[in-house]
Amino acid sequence: MPMKNRVLSSALTLFACTMVCGQKPFAHSQPKQLDDGWKTVHLKTLGADTALAYRFFNRLEKETHKIHSILLVKDNKLVLEEYYNGQGIAEPHDLRSATKSIRSLLLGIAIDQGFIGDVDDPISQYLKHPEPTKNSDPRKKTITLKHLLTMSSGLDCNDLDKKSKGQEDNVYKKKDWIQYTLDLPMVQDPGQVSHYCSMGVVLLAEIISKASGMTIQEFAKHFLFDPLGITRATW
Question: What pTM value is reported for the model?
Answer without folding.
Answer: 0.76
